[in-house]
């Protein structure tokens, strides 16, 4: 049986995914860096089209694409489930990872310098993945999550080994108010020199949010110190909510 896509459909998908890379390049990355430095997160509106969202959410039921499935309640992570993609990643997921990384790596290097953390990140994701794999971090970490009524995710950090890229990107694949209610993205910050704070990040279908994985630099009179960040998801009241998580470091 011929498994190749019809020429016209393949061309449409290629054009759509090319447009995605163009959209990422057109983001005001200087403003993203300012937002990350001030808040620990930055929203990228309408980065995915509804067609992208539908395509990616549909992967959830294609078990062949994943290396593992986690039911959160078994591990006291919350309620809901998520699946880690296996290599090779689906084209759109791989393109997102490859296209976002070069814009975030320079910011990551400036953050590490400010916080006096050893190690700098190479220019391309392929190079960074080689670093991870050489250290035994060889399992892919992009993941697809599904929440249904009364599901939620506890506050956490996505750390999988020695090499941790300080940013990750989360994409909302459903529309609030139409497909689900509740399920807001929650971010908390623990600051050793100030009271802690929390943010609710409003997202629409196709929006992405770049957020700090574990900590961010905070300026003081003597330089910079580290504030600790965690993220989670509030309880879903009704409906179904899918998200795609792009984590750039692989896992052991």
Automatic annotation (TrEMBL):
Record protein name field: 2OG-Fe(II) oxygenase
């Amino acid at each position: 049986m011929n498994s190749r896509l019809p020429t016209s459909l393949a061309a449409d998908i290629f054009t759509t995914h090319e447009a995605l890379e163009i959209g990422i390049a057109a983001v005001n990355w200087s403003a993203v860096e300012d937002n990350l430095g001030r808040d620990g997160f930055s929203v990228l509106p309408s980065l995915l089209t509804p067609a992208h969202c539908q395509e990616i959410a549909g992967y959830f039921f294609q078990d062949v694409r994943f290396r593992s499935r986690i039911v959160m309640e078994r591990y006291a992570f919350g309620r809901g489930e998520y699946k880690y993609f296996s290599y090779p990643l689906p084209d759109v997921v791989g393109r997102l990872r490859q296209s976002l990384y070069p814009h975030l790596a320079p910011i990551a290097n400036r953050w590490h310098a400010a916080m006096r953390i050893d190690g700098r990140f190479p220019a391309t994701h392929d190079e960074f993945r080689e670093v991870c794999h050489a250290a035994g971090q060889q399992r892919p970490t992009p993941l697809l999550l599904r929440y249904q009524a009364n599901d939620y995710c506890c506050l956490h950090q996505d750390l999988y080994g020695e090499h941790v890229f300080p940013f990750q990107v989360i994409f909302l694949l459903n529309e609030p108010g139409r497909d689900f209610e509740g399920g807001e993205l929650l971010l908390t910050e623990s600051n050793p020199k100030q009271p802690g704070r929390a943010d609710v990040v409003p997202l629409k279908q196709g929006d992405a949010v770049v957020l700090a994985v574990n900590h961010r630099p905070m300026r003081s009179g003597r330089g910079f110190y580290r504030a600790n960040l965690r993220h989670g998801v509030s309880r879903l009241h009704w409906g179904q909510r899918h998200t795609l998580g792009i984590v750039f470091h692989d896992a052991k």
